[in-house]
Amino acid sequence: MTVSRLPLDGIRVIDFSRVLAGPLCSALLGDLGADVIKIESPDGDDYRAIGPFARGESGLFSAMNRNKRSVVIDLKTADGQMLAQSLCAQADVVVENFRPGVADRLGIGYETLSARHPKLVYASVSGFGQTGPESHRPAYDIILQALCGLMDATGAPDGEPTLVGDSVSDVVSGIFASWGVLAALVARDRTGKGTHVDVSMFDATLSLTATLVARYATTGVTQQRVGNRHPSSAPFGAYRASDGHFVVAVLNNKLFGRLADAINHPELADDPRFASDTSRCSHEGELRVRIEQWAATRSVAEVNATLSDAGVPAAPIQNVQQALDSEHARTRGLLVDTVAADGSTVRVPAQPVKFSAYATTRTTRAPRIGEHTSTVLEDLLRLDTSAIASLAAAGVVRIGEGDTKSEFVQEKDHV
């Protein structure tokens, strides 16, 4: 048996979630050493069927379900519900992202499980939370971006509301859920009691837009779209060079003076139109003309080198490939090579937080569907081979290909 010796070593998580927000929550816990047992329906997590694919496996599923073991249980059967309840009784954490009420109907709701196991930390991730007039509604990332003001604040002033270029509502909800689980585990160590962690994607997305919320709370005015510039500072935005675009971030007079010198217009620092952050913002268009006239004869690389040498925060606009293939990203270990189910090498994202007391966190491949059904039922519930075979024959569980002991199985006598 390999012991992870990571911050969450010894913590067991039963994960009923699927697609993105819930699975990301449990993946983050698994990165830190938790034993995450993913309970899937006989058809599997929907993300298994969503591309892009490599070697027949979904890259999205692989990323969000790293460090997990897969157990297939049909929760629509009475025997399946009993198995799930028994597994949860030996867990520290349960994660689910059903619509409110569905977990209760499947026999795995918080009230049912906590009555048997009061120390259980139970995290529910849903579109609108467990309470409120919209709690019954399903939600997708685009729905939350639209409802929470994120689309309205993104895009050109005279253009259409624009989606942020990733599923940020799902992602931030998964991050907040993992944060809530960790806080609940700390409290449990102090009080001996578990709790229900209610994570609403609506709430999480509004919390993500921290400056939009703060501006509205202070002024009562909704921020309007400003495109690729800052709503209250200048020059702070994206500008064109001869071969592409770059960004500049100037927030004070000292930095503005450096910028003025770097673009060969030192007189701008003494111009009353640009004497403060507020006045520069009011005359952002005039500053843009000066900056882009200077940059028009220079490449992005030349612009970046000149401004960086002058101490002005600047950067080229990179795509994801350029960012992940950079020397800095490689040094930080943001993509990890791990062994796929077929023995080939697959790259999986690693969680970004570094701990001085731990050399590295864990990143192992996502499981094949039902890969650990027999192993988990044998180890945790002490079922023998014939009992598991009977359950499989009845359609209550599914035994996956290559069902073997996991390299990060943990043993627990109690929670």
From TrEMBL:
One of its GO terms (molecular function) is CoA-transferase activity. Signal peptide: none annotated. InterPro entries: CoA-transferase_III_domain, CoA-Trfase_fam_III, CoA-Trfase_III_dom3_sf, CoA-Trfase_III_dom_1_sf. Transmembrane segments: none annotated. The keyword Ion transport does not apply. Keywords: Transferase. This is Formyl-CoA transferase. It comes from Caballeronia humi.
